[in-house]
Design a protein that fits this description.
The chain starts with a helix and ends with a strand. It has helices at about 1-30, 35-50, 60-90, 95-120, 155-165, 205-210, 210-220, 245-250, 255-260, 275-280, 305-310; strands at about 120-130, 135-140, 170-175, 200, 225, 230-235, 235-240, 270-275, 290-295, 315-320, 325-330, 345-355. The chain is about 45% helix and about 15% strand. The strands form two sheets. A six-stranded mixed β-sheet has the order 1-12-2-3-4-5. It folds into two domains: about 1-120, no CATH class; about 120-355, Metallo-dependent phosphatases (Purple Acid Phosphatase, chain A, domain 2, 4-Layer Sandwich), CATH 3.60.21.10. The protein is of the alpha/beta class. The protein is globular, with a radius of gyration of 22 Å. It comes from Campylobacter corcagiensis. This is Metallophosphoesterase. One of its GO terms (biological process) is lipid A biosynthetic process. Keywords: Hydrolase, Membrane, Metal-binding, Transmembrane, Transmembrane helix. InterPro entries: Calcineurin-like_PHP, Metallo-depent_PP-like, Metallophosphoesterase_sf.
Length: about 350
């Protein structure tokens, strides 16, 4: 039932977007707007096929991914249509040139988004100054990798290799590592053994969708230190981690910030891992020097970052959070559609230094 409701919502949204785009194309290109009608029919076929096929199958995964891409393209055409419709209201000259620019920019927008989604994550370097930090540390921050049935261990192996090349002291993964159940992992986690530094992990919302308890057990069996509302001392700092707030909806593995902070050593700096930035916004405390989050994908496709900011409060990068700081990674993968625009994926290297 939930599966059907999801696609009903997506289909309704796609219908409304298509109506607007249809009218926009009709005004610009006369008969050529009929192409959109065929595109919309194709989306309908994809939706029906995805619903009818068993949702756990790889075939269904293909159709769901195709649907996500189609809806994303609709959104991009919608935004482009709005921009040029507003332009037409204030400037009604050179209609042919405006229409040509509309087609060109729409095509480049979509093409660049697919190119950005398929690019390997870049390594970013950020200096973070922390009060009372005695020894500089290099932290590799990963998030939102979204390993699924269509990926294999090559993705994780590539990320581990990138982190190893940076000689990081520790790798911190802030959730949404999985879009797959534990019994389907096979050798997916095998590359973890090649990591040259300890790995710390906290759950994200997607872990709960695929069985958080079993996935956490799988990580522990591969030597990953899963922080379940707890804190550990590591090279002169506290590394703390809380479960994702999605646990509140599922009724297990719920976040407990108080339990976590009760375990820290107050004499040394504290880093707190929490998957969603909005959890950080509601739990700011002077006990934490640096919060680390993911979830936002940096907006993934501009201008979706605006909606992410409205919900989460933070989108990407190092920001001030109360009397502390927060770094939100744009993530190393993508979700839904293999697309990114003005929000590149990353392996974030945080160079922790003592505050001057």
């Amino acid at each position: 039932m939930k599966f059907f409701i999801f696609f009903s919502v997506v289909f309704t949204l796609a219908s409304l977007l298509s109506i607007y785009i249809y009218r926009s194309f009709k005004r610009r290109f006369l008969g050529s707007y009929k192409i959109l009608g065929l595109f919309f029919i194709a989306i309908f076929i994809v939706v029906v096929t995805a619903i009818l096929i068993e949702k756990e199958s790889l075939t269904s995964y293909f159709f769901i991914s195709l649907l996500n891409c189609a809806v994303a393209v609709l959104f991009m055409l919608f935004f482009t249509s709005i921009v040029f419709d507003i332009l037409w209201i204030f400037y009604k000259k050179h209609k042919k040139w405006q229409n040509l620019a509309f087609l060109t920019l729409s095509f480049l927008y979509i093409l660049a988004s697919f190119y950005g989604g398929l690019k390997e994550p870049k390594i970013t370097q950020t200096d973070v100054y922390i009060k009372n930090l005695q020894t500089p540390l290099k932290i590799a921050l990963l998030g939102d990798i979204h390993l699924d049935k269509a990926t294999n261990d090559n993705l994780l192996s590539s990320l581990i290799s990138k982190v190893n090349s940076q000689n990081a002291d520790a790798m911190l993964i802030v959730g949404d590592l999985f879009d797959i159940k534990a019994d389907e992992l096979k050798d997916t986690l095998k590359p973890l053994k090649d990591a040259k530094m300890p790995i710390f992990f906290v759950t994200g919302n997607h872990e709960f969708y695929y069985g958080a308890k079993e996935l956490v057990s799988a990580l522990k069996s591969h030597g990953v230190r899963v922080l379940e509302n707890e804190s550990v001392e590591f090279k002169g700092i506290n590394i703390a981690g809380v479960h994702d707030i999605t646990g509140l909806s599922f009724g297990y593995m719920m976040p407990d910030i108080n339990k976590t902070l009760n375990m820290i050593n107050p004499k040394i700096p504290t880093i707190l891992m929490a998957h969603q930035p909005r959890f950080v916004s509601k739990n700011l405390t002077t006990d934490v020097d640096l919060y680390l989050s993911g979830h936002t994908h940096g907006g993934q496709v501009f201008p979706f970052g605006l909606f992410v900011w409205l919900q989460q409060g933070y989108v990407y990068g190092l920001k001030k959070a109360g009397d502390s700081q927060i770094y939100v990674t744009s993530g190393a993968g993508f979700w839904g559609m293999p697309m990114r625009f003005l929000a590149p994926s990353e392996v974030a290297i945080l160079n922790l230094k003592g505050a001057k």
